């Protein structure tokens, strides 16, 4: 019922393909194969798999798995993942499931189907190449484990080949890092706006403090709202940033980050509520900042640009890449290479009235 075929790979190594064929009434009822690096491993898998297929209901179960669709695979991925799936990945997978490719059987999906899907995704959603790349990366996570985990025949090489093709065609790619930095005049106007609102509405979110904190700490808005009093090491001038953003892991990616003096002063003068320094919704922070820029007619400035400005300032102060990474939390120093061109020029914020206000709080 099963055979093992020896094949030579392009790199000169030898592979062993174990193939199982089951016939009923002279016709092929089921066929499957797997390739291994060693013959004993191939033989062991073949014997175990034959036993599973000949067991009561085994063949029927195999047929069901073989007929599984991409939508079934995504659904299984979501159900079986014990790690919390982030908001962005959840939204991406939900969007993918609305496309016709998810109605295709796993065994029939080839690289050409994935290339066509990526083009359709770009056209219908008006996505940039880097966003299409992110969508395929999230989908690739399903492809990588569908076959070994659930026996659903998704071909991992199909999506790998599609990613290579799309990159060479320019359909996917890395986004250009934003270089927008706020001027001191723009920051003065923004902070004055928020300070005046704080006086008028004392119970409102202290956006002027949050902006200063983001600027000098280099923290993202979501990280800021998760900072806890219990995670502050004031003596060591550092804080544990929980669930820091990372391409491969966000949930559980906790990183100790150094605190520059202005940041430490802000935290020491804060009055944590419920154990958190800034117990607010991170989306509201971004919305408040965007509305303020619109009101002040400041164009093309995002809250996240404060992080870029903060990291740039560290290099202008003469920080090395490792030293800057200790503040920003970048796990890969290569991510900071974009700042390597910045030369030490001193601190343009020295004597800045808003920085002095931090010192006196």
Lay out the secondary structure.
Blueprint: E1 2-8, E2 14-24, E3 27-36, H1 39-54, H2 58-66, H3 70-80, H4 87-96, H5 111-125, H6 129-150, H7 156-168, H8 184-200, H9 207-217, H10 221-224, E4 232-233, E5 238-241, E6 255-258, H11 261-269, H12 282-295, H13 305-316, H14 321-328, H15 353-360
Antiparallel strand pairs: 1-2, 2-3, 4-5, 5-6
Helix pairs in contact: 3-6, 5-7, 6-7, 8-9, 9-13, 13-14
Any overview of this molecule?
Helices cover 50% and strands 11% of the residues. It is built from 15 helices and 6 strands. A hairpin with a 5-residue loop joins strand 1 and strand 2. Helix 3 crosses helix 6, helix 5 packs across helix 7 and helix 13 runs antiparallel to helix 14. The radius of gyration is 27 Å and the shape is elongated. The N and C termini lie far apart (80 Å).
User: Judging from the principal axes of the Cα atoms, what is the shape?
Assistant: elongated
Strand content: 5-15%
Strand ordering within the main sheet: 1-2-3
Mean pLDDT figure: 88
Order of helices and strands: EEEHHHHHHHHHHEEEHHHHH
**Major sheet size, sense and barrel closure:** 3 strands, antiparallel
Rg computed from alpha carbons, rounded to a whole number of angstroms? 27 Å
């Amino acid at each position: 019922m099963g055979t093992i075929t020896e094949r030579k790979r392009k790199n000169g190594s030898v592979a062993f393909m174990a193939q199982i064929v089951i016939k009923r009434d002279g016709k092929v009822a089921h066929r499957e194969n797997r390739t291994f690096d060693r013959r004993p491993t191939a033989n062991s898998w073949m014997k175990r798999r034959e036993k599973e297929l000949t067991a009561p209901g085994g063949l029927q179960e195999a047929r069901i798995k073989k007929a599984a669709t991409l939508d079934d695979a995504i659904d299984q991925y979501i159900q079986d993942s014990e790690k919390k799936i982030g908001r962005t990945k959840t939204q991406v997978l939900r969007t993918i499931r609305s496309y016709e490719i998810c109605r295709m059987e796993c065994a029939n999906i080839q690289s050409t189907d994935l290339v066509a899907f990526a083009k359709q995704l770009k056209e219908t959603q008006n996505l940039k190449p880097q966003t299409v790349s992110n969508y395929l990366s999230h989908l690739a996570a399903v492809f990588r484990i569908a076959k070994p985990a659930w026996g659903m025949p998704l071909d991992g090489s199909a999506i790998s080949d599609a990613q290579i093709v799309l990159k060479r065609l320019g359909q996917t790619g890395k986004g250009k890092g934003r270089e927008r930095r706020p001027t001191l005049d723009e920051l003065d106007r923004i902070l004055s706006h928020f300070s005046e609102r704080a006086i008028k509405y004392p119970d409102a979110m202290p956006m002027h403090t949050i902006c200063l904190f983001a600027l000098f700490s280099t923290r993202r808005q979501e990280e800021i709202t998760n900072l806890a009093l219990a995670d502050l090491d004031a003596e060591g001038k550092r804080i544990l940033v929980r669930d820091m953003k990372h391409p491969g892991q966000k949930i559980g990616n906790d990183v100790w980050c150094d605190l520059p003096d202005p940041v430490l002063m802000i935290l020491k003068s804060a009055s944590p509520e419920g154990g958190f320094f800034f117990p607010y919704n991170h989306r509201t922070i971004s919305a408040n900042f965007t509305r303020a820029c619109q009101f002040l007619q400041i164009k093309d400035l995002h809250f996240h640009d404060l992080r870029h400005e903060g990291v740039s300032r560290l290099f202008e102060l003469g920080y090395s890449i490792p030293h800057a990474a200790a503040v920003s939390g970048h796990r890969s120093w290569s991510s900071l290479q974009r700042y390597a061109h910045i030369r030490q020029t001193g601190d343009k914020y020295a004597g800045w009235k808003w920085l002095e206000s931090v010192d006196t709080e």
